[in-house]
């Protein structure tokens, strides 16, 4: 009887031990599964964080490149604008000069005043003529050169800012000297013109 009870207790103890071991094994497996799940979760979070950082770095570089491109484009446009304004101002000044000269040439009253004064005084100071006509000295010279090219007047300018109208007779006199001597030096030709200016203008 006692042997039977002792055998039963041993059997129950074995069952309890097996049950405890099984429960422990189940808990360990559950813990392992949980651990692996946490590991995978952490790895995924790290992967996502790294991906986020890569995307952020990529976006930052793209923004830097775009900013550099914008800066270069703005600088290019600024230089083009400055170049355009420079040429625009230059063209504007040249156009204004041409406009004044054309206005002077198209104003027969002022052209008549200019030619009349030259004919009366023979020699005139260019600056004085320009002041009276309300234009620049360069514009007077340009207008006279145009009138000379049109055959309306023959003038000689000297280095003292004077202009002298040359008559056909005076021009023929110079031509005769050139024809007679065959060649005439520039110095002599200048001296002849200066002598005429000195006689009439000093």
Automatic annotation (TrEMBL):
<feature type="region of interest" description="Disordered">
    <location>
        <begin position="1"/>
        <end position="75"/>
    </location>
</feature>
<dbReference type="GO" id="GO:0044389">
    <property type="term" value="F:ubiquitin-like protein ligase binding"/>
</dbReference>
<keyword id="KW-0472">Membrane</keyword>
<keyword id="KW-0812">Transmembrane</keyword>
<dbReference type="InterPro" id="IPR036388">
    <property type="entry name" value="WH-like_DNA-bd_sf"/>
</dbReference>
<protein>
    <recommendedName>
        <fullName>DDRGK domain-containing protein 1</fullName>
    </recommendedName>
</protein>
<feature type="compositionally biased region" description="Basic and acidic residues">
    <location>
        <begin position="25"/>
        <end position="75"/>
    </location>
</feature>
<dbReference type="InterPro" id="IPR019153">
    <property type="entry name" value="DDRGK_dom-contain"/>
</dbReference>
<dbReference type="InterPro" id="IPR050899">
    <property type="entry name" value="DDRGK_domain-containing"/>
</dbReference>
<dbReference type="InterPro" id="IPR036390">
    <property type="entry name" value="WH_DNA-bd_sf"/>
</dbReference>
<dbReference type="GO" id="GO:0016020">
    <property type="term" value="C:membrane"/>
</dbReference>
<dbReference type="Pfam" id="PF09756">
    <property type="entry name" value="DDRGK"/>
</dbReference>
<keyword id="KW-1133">Transmembrane helix</keyword>
């Amino acid at each position: 009887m006692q042997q039977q009870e002792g055998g039963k207790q041993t059997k129950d103890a074995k069952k309890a031990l097996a049950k405890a071991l099984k429960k422990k094994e189940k808990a360990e497996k559950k813990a392992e599964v949980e651990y692996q799940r946490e590991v995978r979760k952490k790895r995924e979070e790290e992967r996502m964080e790294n991906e986020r950082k890569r995307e952020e770095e990529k976006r930052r570089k793209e923004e830097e490149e775009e900013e550099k491109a914008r800066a270069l484009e703005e600088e290019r446009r600024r230089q083009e604008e400055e170049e355009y304004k420079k040429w625009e101002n230059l063209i504007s000044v040249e156009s204004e000069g041409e406009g004044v000269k054309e206005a002077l040439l198209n104003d027969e009253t002022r052209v008549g005043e200019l030619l009349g004064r030259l004919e009366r005084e023979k020699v005139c100071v260019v600056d004085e003529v320009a002041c009276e006509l309300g234009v620049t000295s360069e514009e007077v010279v340009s207008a006279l050169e145009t009138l000379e090219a049109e055959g309306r007047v023959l003038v000689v300018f000297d280095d003292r800012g004077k202009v002298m109208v040359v008559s056909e007779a005076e021009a023929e006199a110079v031509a005769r000297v050139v024809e007679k001597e065959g060649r005439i030096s520039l110095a002599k030709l200048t001296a002849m013109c200066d002598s005429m200016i000195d006689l009439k203008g000093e």
